Amino acid sequence: MAEIEDNTVFQQDDHRAAYIFSAPSSEDQHHHAASSAARPTKRRRVSSKKDGSKSRQQTAAAAGEETAAARSAFTPLFNGAESPDAVRLRAESFETAWPVLDARIQHVLREANRNTLDEVTSFIGNAEAETTQIPAGIIITGPNIASQDLLFEQLADTLCKATQARFVRLRSAEAPNLKAALKKIIKDAGASGRDDDDDADDDDETGLSVGKDGRKYLNYDLETLHVALGANESPRVIVAFQDSEAFDSGLLTDLIALFHSWHDRIRFSVLFGIATSVQLFQARLLKSTARYLYGAQFDVVQAGSVLESVFKSAVAGSQAMVRLGPSLLRNLVERQQDQVAGIQVFISSLKYAYMCHFYANPLSMFLAADGHVDRQLLQPEHTQAVRTLGSFKAHVERAVEARQLNHAQSLLDDDSYLVDQILKQGQRRQDHVMRLLRSLHLITAMGILSTPFTDLYISALAEGIDLSSDMFAVVDPIKRLGPDGIISLIRRIVSAIETGSPELDLPGWESEADELMAALGEIRDEVETLVERTKDNRNPLKSKYGAQNKVLRTTVVAQKVQLSRDTATLTEEDNAFTKAIDSLADILSQHIHCDPAESLFLHEAWLYDSKSPYRDVFIPRPATTFGRALTRPHDYLGCACCGNAGGAVASTLPATAILYHLYLEAGALINVADLWSAYYASVGDESELGLDERTALVHFYQGLAELRMMGFVRQSKKKADHVAKLKWL
Length: 729
What we know:
Layout: H1 26-38, H2 49-72, H3 84-112, H4 114-125, E1 134-140, H5 148-163, E2 166-170, H6 178-191, E3 208-210, E4 216-218, H7 222-228, E5 236-241, H8 249-261, E6 267-274, H9 278-283, H10 287-290, E7 293-299, H11 303-315, E8 323-324, H12 326-338, H13 343-360, H14 380-387, H15 390-401, H16 405-413, H17 415-446, H18 453-463, H19 475-479, H20 483-499, H21 514-537, E9 550-557, E10 560-567, H22 572-591, E11 607-608, H23 612-618, H24 622-631, H25 634-637, H26 655-665, E12 669-671, H27 672-683, H28 693-709, E13 713-715, E14 722-725
Parallel strand pairs: 1-6, 1-7, 2-5, 5-6, 8-11
Antiparallel strand pairs: 3-4, 9-10, 12-14, 13-14
């Protein structure tokens, strides 16, 4: 057992049985008054409604100060040569861009669980107070546990406003036993009705709570909660078990029985978050406990659907000022799917990407005011930075290949001409984004591809949109459609053009697609006419691409059966229908297309595709970092003594680094005596460092303690003189 160090300092009078009071002299009084004036007086917290308004004003003022501080946190780039106006413009661009997206994200999150919230609120609100059973809502959340936080936060806000009840969230980690669960319920339910300025720690160190009448109650007795809620005629408390299946069945049984016994004084309602099924959850409860409950089952929107809705609104929507690149988006989506991360992690990743782009990219100022930047803000450093971009080089090369030599020469030599081209890229960026979103909306409206929208969007950014490519291969399925399928397809496309997409914040563009709408209308009318003509002939209308056009022929030659495929004879109507399908495929291929995002000039100003900051922040690798630091300490210390080691063992390395090298060569169990012998052989008298045994032993214990602190070794339970190896790198 480790010794506990006690630093208590005892005074001379601490052990005296009696004290003699003597009146202080005038000098003592003067000294006491001076010390009292020097010592600050103890301030008492006093809460009132007026103070609440003051605190809100102070909070608003503090928020304004934080915004100003965040704005001032943007440092000048170009080695400090960036002008203050350009720095301010970058900061204002971020402050303008992110709140718009954040508002759309919160709207999507509220609407995602709207039906579930309304159903649960109606069920809890209509629960009869006279019943002897406890209202229980069983919410099927699915296997993604990370998505439960958002749902129960929304339930807390909605139910508190709609039913005027006290809401308590319980997790299995917070309530290992009955006493801890009751403490949590009483504390949260009692504190939810207090003002923020009130003291929430009325419990003393003995576990007693003092009521308004001066009586003391145990802080795990529901009588305490009943006294705290005594002002209400029929107080209601909603207890939500967020991860119900992780709770011990005996604990749930005891809590439900206790709630039922208090039901005549406190109206308890319970909510259970279930990841599997109601049958499995009910099997964990006693039948006598199940009789105390009457409830209903509620299904929620799965996390994948919520992620796609947030993706459409915040990432792909037309309001997104910054476009995340395909590589970064792939990492974000894969992390959400593989690591089952919550939607809040995805939102935090988006915000971090915005912060990185506006903070570290001086060209992000071009996104201000939809690209209409005052040319007076542009510095020579901006034009020089643009000429170093990969998109600038590609643009000049394309101009040379197209024999636009004057244009290419002006871009390289004339700063004024380059500034004019830069200012034109804002409108070209908007045109590219609208073409991208319109093409994706039409492809999804066809209903032919089953690929998720996230994959389609990432592929469109990386490779562009081409209906003949593997990702957007819709031409062949369209050609195999029958007449009814072609007519239905055209109607869906026309409807998509007229209505747009509210999820993508994409308005309809019927007025800009007169040629496409007219061509689709002609093809639809022609196909409908052909269908009417074939009804008289009683022959189904088909094309040469359809399966009905393939005929299997059987031929018997010399008592052998031979099978061969042949094409059926097409009628005049069939040939006309085939021609209409070819026309439809050509029209769609002409109007549904988009170039890759990286093919645009100056895409670095609005496309963020850096994965390193995201991985370092959201996917940290401490073990790899520790391993590299201990293997090559010179890369971090920059000292001359470690520079010549070259990743090998040297006596001049720190003791922890030497022990780490020996640690890598050892097995699962390491004999401490052998480890000490190997270490002393590296740093002892015969080595370059030449430490004596006592000094080397001190360094050895220090290094071994640091390895233990970093989680590489621990004391072995099998052998007292060994340490166990915990990591293999």
